[in-house]
Amino acid sequence: MPLALLALAVGAFGIGLTEFVIVGLMSGISHDLEVSIPTAGLLVSGYAAGVVVGAPLLTAAGTKAPRKTMLLTLMGIFVAGNLISALAPSYGLLMAGRVVASLTHGAFFGVGSVVAAGLVPEEKRARAVALMFAGLTLANVLGVPMGTALGQQLGWRSTFWAVTVIGLLALALIAALVPHQPADPSATLRGELKAFRNVQVWLALLVTALGFAAFFGIVTYVEPMMTTVAGFPTGAVPWLLVLFGSGLVVGNYVGGKAADRRLMPTLYTVLAGMAVLLVVFAHTLHSPVPAPVTLFVFGAVGFAITPTIQTRVMDEAVQAPALASAVNIAAFNLGNAVTAWVNGAAIDSGAGYTAPAWIGAVFAGAGLAAALLSGGLDRRRRKAVRVRPEAATGAEVGTGADPAPVLERC
């Protein structure tokens, strides 16, 4: 694989670390800036909101920019946001720094996915995307525990200084290793938006939102689930998170490799596997022996959806792969926000900490239904090509997209 993928992975590592490490710094921030823990918790919500807003806006703004230039610009903004956070003398400025950094999140992964896919042959595209997202998984496995420990020892600002340095390293590596990929001179924002006339793009975004709603329901509440229900001591939580994160690494790699062979069957298998595993987890969660095993397997199966659905979106949005990929990251965060609200309401109502597993199974099942509907439209399109090739235009089957990429990859 090209060394340029290393540069993209380092950038992904820094962005993933910024998003998730804040959870381990809440107490220090609350004490230092004299705000309550729930108020400090809004730094997570503020980041997620910035991702949803920034993903389409920044990607659309860079429609005519060369992709390497776009990546360098995004990483520069990311560094600035973390620098503001590190220096912030008040809660308001810390929130501002978080939002500035978050604006680049979706656009970086969107543009980066297209760049990664363009660096390798067609049959290795999903694996290339998976290698970029490996930075995100490593941020969870290694970065968050290390960043949390650093913040606890030297103060929460030290963590943001460390992330700033990682951002500068990523900036240098992108400048040195990522080849120039010129923008399409005919590309316009209006033309890019036409990709969203394709119902398959919307179905892929729906699968993303539902699939990650199932996934993040467990991520958000893994600590109380494993301590309150499974009976683990609080001190075991970091090791359980490392175990879970190891599953993410495995799933990311296997999912990318499987998606390169058979994309849609991989997507069906992952979503069905998530639904089944969540039902199993609701039962194994009551025992300290099978609970962590199920947690690891769920992490592996659940995160296999990442390179799979990201590649699916790029295949369907052939007119605007970067914009659609960025919007897909926004859908990822939308699923995160929705499941946090739904599961929180269920737990508050007395459903207990097994509720996220049951609710997640419903989300995964709904995602599978959307994926099967999408696959059905693919089969209809293939049939139209066989029976009457000249009729196999996107307009006649209601998608508005060139069928060629999907016909080759499903």
UniProtKB/TrEMBL annotation:
PANTHER family named among the record's database cross-references: CHLORAMPHENICOL EFFLUX PUMP RV0191 (PTHR43124:SF3), PURINE EFFLUX PUMP PBUE (PTHR43124)
Annotated localization: Cell membrane
GO molecular function, one term: transmembrane transporter activity
Primary location recorded for the protein, binned into one broad class: membrane
InterPro entries, per database record: MFS, MFS_dom, MFS_Efflux_Transporters, MFS_trans_sf
Membrane-spanning segments: 42-59, 71-93, 99-121, 128-147, 159-178, 199-221, 236-255, 267-285, 291-309, 321-343, 355-377
Record membrane topology: Multi-pass membrane protein
Record's protein name: DHA1 family inner membrane transport protein
Gene3D superfamilies reported in the protein's UniProt record: MFS general substrate transporter like domains
Residue ranges annotated for the Major facilitator superfamily (MFS) profile domain, each copy included: 4-382
Keyword annotations of the record: Cell membrane, Membrane, Transmembrane, Transmembrane helix
PROSITE patterns: MFS
UniProt KW Protein transport keyword: no
A GO cellular-component term linked to this record: plasma membrane
Keyword Signal carried by entry: no
Domain of life: Bacteria
Biological source species: Haloactinospora alba
